[in-house]
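The aim of this short unit is practical: by the end, you should be able to scan a pair of folded records and say something sensible about each. We start with the first protein, listed as its amino acid sequence and then its C-alpha cells.
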Amino acid sequence: MPQNFYNQKIEDVAQELETSSSQGLSVNQIEELRTKYGSNSLTSKKKISIWQRFLAQFKDFMIIVLIVAALLSGFVAQEWTDAAIIMIVVILNAVLGVFQETRSEEAINALKKMATPNAHVRRDGQIVEIPSTELVPGDLVLLEAGDVVPADLRLTLTKSLKIEESALTGESVPVDKTSEPINEEKVALADQDNMAFANTNVTYGRGEGIVTETGMNTEVGKIATMLNNTDETDTPLKRNLNQLGKTLTIMILLICAVVFVVGFFTKKGTEPTDKLAIDMFLVAVSLAVAAIPEGLPAIVTIILALGTQIMAKHNSIVRKLPAVETLGATDIICSDKTGTLTQNKMTVEQVYYDNQVHNSSNRITTDNHALMAMVLANDSKLDDNNQLLGDPTETALVQYALDQKIDVHNLLANHKRLQEVPFDSGRKLMSTINENNGQYFVAVKGAPDQLLKRVTQIELDGKVSEITEKQKDEIMLSNQNMAKNALRVLGLAYKTVEQLYDDPTTDNVEQNLIFVGLVGMIDPERPEAKEAIKEAHSAGIRTVMITGDFQVTAQAIAERLGILKPGQDERVVTGAQLDEFSDEYLEKHVADFDVYARVSPEHKVRIVKAWQAQGKIVAMTGDGVNDAPSLKQADIGIGMGITGTEVSKGASDMVLADDNFATIVEAVKQGRKVFSNIQKAILYLMSCNVGEVLTVFMMTMLGWDILAPVQLLWINLVTDTLPAIALGLEPVEKGIMKRMPRGKKSNFFSGGVASSIVYQGILEGVIVLTTYQLGLNFGPHMGNANLQHADALTMAFLTLGLIQLFHAFNSKYIHQSIFSKRTFANKWFNWAILISAIVMAAVELPFMTKFFDVTELNSTQWLIVLGAGICMILIVEIVKGFQRLSGKK
C-alpha cells in the first residue's frame, strides 16, 4: 500500500482502498477488512510479569556479592543481624526497581487513552456512529469542530477545516486543511495539509476523509512502536555503581584471601590447625563484610529520595530516582520549542497602521478600524469572565483588544454579526457584515497579499484616500520585515455599506476594501527562558532547539533566546535536510547545528542518538505525543506538567510542574549537588573501609593481635549509616553551576576522589596501627603483657571507630578546607556524628566490655585515641592545602 496518499488525487485514493469518496465502504466489505487489518487500537509489547521484573533486579554484580556476603555472615560467621540488614537493603532496592519499571509503561497506556471512543462514518451512503476501534482503511469519516481524529485520513472534503496538531507535529497553531493533492515527493508531516492524523483535534470547520491507516500503522501508532522498541538507557548512576561494585569487590576478596593465607601460616603452631583455619576464615569473612559497603545502595537511594523532595519544592517532579543524579551530569538539553521555550499561546506583538509599526504595548483608540476588524472578523468566543475559546490566532486578536482595555462585550453587542463569508484556505480571507449605527460594517482579515488584491483605498490618520502602488509596496515590505521576525502576519481591511447582501460572496463582499493595517503575532518565548539558557551555558550545558515549526520561526525564536547569534543561518537545519543525512554524517556533524526545524518524531530520536554517540549525556524536554520516543531515548526525559500530554509525561523521567524552562536549571543544580553528595558518601565509606582492611591486613602480616569479627562489624554498623546518610544532606556548594559537566566517562572516583580514598585510607590505617603501638607502651597495665595487649587492641578498636567520625568532617569537601562557617551548617550531620560517637563510646560501659572483648581505658589512653582523630583532620587539611596550591599553579 503506498504511503504518500497526500500525493494522490481523491479518486485514486478511493480506488486504491476499494471505497467510494461519497458513499464510503459497503457493509459487505467490513468483516473482511477487519480481519485483514485488525482493531484500530494501539498495542504494547508483551508485558513482563512482576515476578520476572523482581528476579531481574538480582542480576547486578554488586547485589550478588552482597547476597553471598549475607549468607557467609549468617551461616559461617553467625552474624545474623548483619546478614538480615544486608538482605533488607537488597530486597528494598529490588522492590524500588520493579516500581520504577512498572511506571515506565504509562506512556503506551496514555496513548491508548487518547483515542476517541466513537467515530461518525458514511457506509453505503448512510451516516452511522461506531466505536473508533472498528474503523478500517477505506472508511469515510466525518469530522467537525471538537472531534478527535480517530485514524489517519486522506481528506476528501474541507469546509474551513482547521486541525490542531501541535502534540504530534510541534506546529504551534492549527493547520488549515485542504483536499487538494500535494505535488511534492517528500513532505514533512506538518506540511501534509490534505491529511488528518489520529489523536489530533479539530478546532474549526468540518470535513470528510478516507481512512488510510489504522492502529499501529497510524502516525501516532508509529510513535507507540518506537516507544515499544526503545531500550531504556543505563543512567550514569547505574553504570558508576556497577563499575564501583565490580572493582571494589574483586579488590576486597583478594585482600581477604591474602589475610586468610598469611594469617594462617603466620600463626600456624599456636593453636590446632582446624581451629586456626576456622578463626582465620571468620576474620576474613568479617573483614569482607566490613569492607564491602553493603549500605551503599541504600545510602544512594536515600540521598536520591531526599533530592527528589527538594526538587519537588522547586517544581521538578522526579518519576525515576536515578534521574536526579543524571540531570546533574547533562551535557546537552534538547528542548522542544512550543510550550517549553515558548508559551504555546499566540500573542499580538506588532500592529502596523498609519504607515508605522507599533508595539503591542502602545495604546490604541476604541474607534480604530484595525482593532474593529480584528474583533469583528473573528469566530472566537468570549464568556462573561473574559475567558476565550477558539482558534489560537483569533483568540490572540481578541486578547490584544482586552489588553488595550477595550470593552469587547460592548463592541460586539453594538456590532452584531448579520452575514459572513467564512474563511477558505483557497482565498485565505474571512469577512463579516455587522450592524453599525444604521449602516453595515464589513470587517475583513486574511493573508496580506490576497487582501491587497481587493483593496482600492487606505486609511491614514483617520482619513481615507486612494491607495497607490507605492503604498502597497510599502505595506508588503512591512509584512516581509514582520515575517522575518517570525511573526504570523494578517492584513486588516474594512468598508461600510448601506444594505445587506442578497448573497454574500467574496465577489461582492471582499471588493473595494479600505486597507487599515497589519497585525503580527507570535508564540512568544518564555520571559525566564533566556536567562535560564544563559545560566545553563555558564554551566557548560548546550541548549539545542528542536521544533516542528517553520525554519524562519524557529531561527527567530532561537536568536531571541540567545541559542543563536543573529545571522547564523548555517546552524539551522530542517527535517527535509536531515532526511538527506546518513546516521554517520549526523553523528559526525551534530555539533554543527543548534536549531532543528520542521522535524518529525523519528528525527528527534536520531538527534538524541547522534549526541549520545558523541559520548554526551542528553536531556530532552517536550510536551507532545511526538516527543515521547525521544523523551524515552534520552538519558533523561523531561515532560511538561501543565501543557504536556499524558503520553509525554509517561515517557519522562522528570516532569516540570510549572512548565518552566528555568526550573530545569535549578534541577541541574540539585542534580549536581546529589552527585557531589554521593561522591562525599563514597569517599567517606571507601576511605574508612580501606583503613579497616589495611589495619587488619598489616596486623596479620606483622603477627600482631587482630581485631575480632564482632568489633569490625560493630564499627561498620555505627560509622557506615548515619554519618554517610547525613553527608547526602549537605547543601549546594558555592560555584557548583560554574563547573563544566562531568560527562559520561566520569565516575564517582573522578575529580580527585580515587586518590583521596587511597591516601586517606592509608593514613587512617597508619594512625590506628600507631595508636596500637602507643597502647603497648602507655597505660596502667605496664608489666602485664596480656592486659597491655588488651588495652592496645581496645585503643586500636576505638580509634578505628572514632577516627572515621572525625574523618566524616574531612569528607564534606574533597579539596576545600573544612575550617569555615559552612562546615556546621548541616544540622543533620552534626546530630549524626554526635549520636554515632556516643554509640561507639558506649562499648566502654562496664556491662558492654565483655561482649566486645575490650578493656576500660583511662584518661591518658582516651586522650591518645581522641588525639589520633584530630591528627586525621589536621593531616588531611595539610594535604588539601597543597592540592589547592598545586591546582592554582
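Turning to the second protein, read its sequence before its C-alpha cells, just as you did above.
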Amino acid sequence: MSETRSSRPAEGAPAPTDRRIVVVGGGPAAHRFVEALWRRGTDGLHITVLTEEAHPPYDRVALSSALTGDVDLALGEPLMWREPAISLVTGERAVRLDLAARCVVGASGGTYAYDDVVLATGSDAVRLPLANGEQAAVYRTLDDVQWLRTETARLSAELGRAPRAVVIGGGLLGLEAAGGLQYLGAEATVVNRAGWLMNAQLDQGAGQALGRLITAKGLGIHCGGAPTSIDTDDDGRVTAVGLSDGTMLSADLVVFAVGIRPRDELAREAGLEVAPRGGVVIGAGCETAMPGVWAIGEVASYEGVSMGLVAPANAMAEVCADGILGGLSTFPGFDTATKLKLSGVEVASFGDALAEAEGSLEIVYADPARGLYQKLVVTDDAKTLLGGIFVGDAAPYSALRPLLGRELPAEPGAYLSSAGGEAPQSELPDDVILCSCNNVTAGACRSAVHGLDEDGAAVEPALDMPSLKACSRAGTQCGSCVPMLKKLLDSELTKAGKTVSRGICEHFAMSRPELFEAIQALDLASFQDIIQRFGVTDEAKTGHGCDICKPAIGSILATQRGEYVLDGGRGALQDTNDRALANMQRNGTYSVVPRIPGGEITPQKLAVIAQVAEQFGLYVKLTGALRIDLFGARLEQLPEIWKILVEAGFESGQAYGKALRNVKSCVGSTWCRFGVQDSVAMAIDLEMRYRGLRAPHKFKMGVSGCARECAEARSKDVGVIATDQGWNMYVGGNGGFQPAHAQLLAQDLDGETLIRYIDRYLMYYIRTADRMQRTARWMDDLDGGLEHVRDVVINDSLGIAEDLEAAMARHVEHYEDEWAATLKDPDRLRRFRSFVNAPDAADQSIVLVEERGQQRPATPAEIEAGARRVGLGVAIPVRAATGAPALREG
C-alpha cells in the first residue's frame, strides 16, 4: 500500500471540523467525482480515495492504446493529488464497509472513517464457466494489458511463429483486444455467440458490414457459436477452443471479453440493497437507501440497469458531488452512444439505434459487402432524430449526436454521406449537449470562446482547441465530439473577427503546408520525431496521433524522402489501401491495377494480364482511365500476382494511393488524321516522370493531340492540349462530387517548358494544399486563384521555382516501384498474410456469381436467395440473357 498526499497537520489527517469523504475505488468515475469536488473547492472537506491498483486513476477508454505501446493514461491534473485535502491511497483494497461504525476497512488493516462514503468499485470482467477457463486471460486493467503484451512476446519466441489468440466476445472490448493482439503479432480470431459483431449496439445489417471490414483487417471472425471448452495439453498449455457448433479453433492464448459484472460484494455484505442483476441500487441523486452512502459508475444500478460506459459514469459523479455539497442535481439516465475506431474501421451507435420506439422510421444506406452501413431512426413524420448507426463511414456522427431528440434541419437522407448526402450547415442551439461524456453544452463552449464562465463572469477567452478543451472539458475523453467542437470554435472566432486556427487536427497547431515546410527544414524522418517536435500539448507529444494527421504526415514523408512507403514505421500511418498496396473492394477482395503509361501496351503484355486473370480467376475491366483493372484478388494472393506482373515489366498503377493515377491520351498524330502533336509520347513521358508522386489527394492528367479533346484533358488536374505551335497547359480540373473545368495557364509551350511548368505546379500544390484537397478546391482557396498560380509557376513571383524543380528532380531520381520493392524483401511480404489461421486458406465468406462470362460479387438479394458453397465462393444461379440459369462454381 502507498499513499499520495501533500503535507498537512498530523501527517495528513483531517482537521476535527473537516467533513470526511471516503471514495472506494480508483477508476474514472472515482476520479471524476474527486475532480468535481476539487473544482468547487475543498474547504471544510477531507477526501480519501482507496484504490487496489498500484496506479493512480487512468483512462480505461483508451486501454487499447496501452496494448500497442507505452502511453500515459493518467487522468486529469496531477496537481489535484497534491491538494492537502485529498489523499490517494494506492494498493489498498477495501474489504469491509461498516455502516454502524461509519468506516471502511482496508486489506492492510487500516480503517478509514467517513461522514460520506462513495462506492465507485466498478466492475470485474466476466469469466465464462468453461473447462480450463482459468487458463484464459481477461482484458480489463492496465495489469491485464501488460500481461497480454508479455505473454504474446513469450509465445512468439517459444513457438517460433505468430501465436494464435482467440478473443471470446465480439463487443467493443473484444474487438479492441483482438486488434491490439494482432498489432503485437498474434493471429487473432474473435468469437461471438450472436450472429454478428457488437449485437448490443448494432442491428444485423450493421453487424455484417462491420464483420466484413474487420475480416479485411486480417482478424478472424466466428459468429453464431458459443464457446464450450478450452482444451489444454498435458503441460496445461492452451491448444484449442471448442464451440457449440462443433468448430475447434486452434489457440495458444484465450482472452475473455464477454462483459462486466458490478463489484457490489462490499455493499452486499454490508446489507445495502443490490439489484437482481447486480449493482448497488441508487436513486436519481446517486444516493443509496442508507444516509451518507452513495454509489456511482459501473457498480451503481439505476432503475435496474448497470452500464459500463464513460458518459453515465461521469454524469453520476457530477450528480453525486453536487448532492454531497447540498445540491439537488439528478441523474438524467443512461446515454448509450458508442464510437469505435479499430485499425481504421469506424463504428458509431447512438439513441434508439435498433428502432424500438413505436412508429419509428429507419432511413438506411446499406452496402454490407463493401463494409458501409448508415442508418438514421426518426419519428413517423421523418422529422425528429431518435438514433442512428454508422459503420465504415461515421463522418455524420459528430454532427448528428447532439441533435438526438430534436427536429433535424434537413431531410434525414441528407445526412447519409455514403449515399452521397451532404447535410446543410447549421448552428447548434446553446442547450444542445455537444460533449455527452462530460455533459457540456454548445452554449457553454461558445461562452468559453468569448471569455465567460458558467456564471457569466469574465475569464480568459479560449481561442484554440487545447484551451477550449481544458476550460470546458469537452472532447477530453472519447474524442468523438472533437470535430463539432472545432467547427464551433472556428465559427465563433470568425464571427468575432478573429483569426481561425488552421491546425491540421487537435494534435498539431500547424496546417499541412506549414508542417510540410517544417518537416523538410528539420529533415525529420518519423512520425514520432514530428509529433514530439510539433505536437501542441504534452499529451499530443506522447500520443499516437489520429486518422487525420497520420496519413497526412505519411504522405509528406513519402514525398520528401522517396523511401519505401511502409518502412520505418510509416506503414502504421497509412490508410487501408496504402497498407495493402491495393484497393479493397466491396466484398473484401482487392483490385490489381498495373500501370499502362498513356494506354499503350504490347500484345505480349496483354497476354500476361490475360494469364494472370485466368490463373487467379479475376474479373477484368477496361476503365475510362485507359487502364486494365483486375478484381477479386485475396490479400495473400497479391504477391503471387505481382511477381508475375513485375517479371513481365509491369509496375504498380498506384490506384490505391493519394498520388498520380494515370495520364490519359488519345492516339494523337501517330494515327489520327486530325492530330497535330504526338500525344501518346507526351502522355508516356509525363506518366513515367510523375509516377509514384505522393500528394494531398489523388491527381490525374490528360493529353489530347488536337483541339477535339478526345482525352478530356480539361477535366483533369493537369490537362495538356496540342496546338500547331506546341502545347496548351490547363490546371485545376476535377471530376468527382464537385466537378470543375480546368483553366488555361499557358499557351503554345514547347515540350521542355511544359514539363518545367508542370513540375512547378505539382510541387507547389503538394507543398501548400490542405490534406485531402483536390487541385480545384486548392486553387479556389488561394488568394488570387489562377493568377497567383500563374505568377508562381511562370513568373517565379515567390522565388522558389528552382527549389520546386529540384524537388521534382529528386523524386524522379529516387523513384522505385513499390511492388517491385516489396517482392525483394521477405519482411515486407509478411504484411500480406491471410486473415485466417492457415495462411493459404481462402475466405469462405466471399460470394461470387458468374455474369457475362466473368465472376462478380453477389448482391445481398442473391445471397439471401440461397446458395450452395463451392470451393472459394458460393455458386448462385443467375439468369442469363436467354433466360437459362448460369452457374459459376467459385
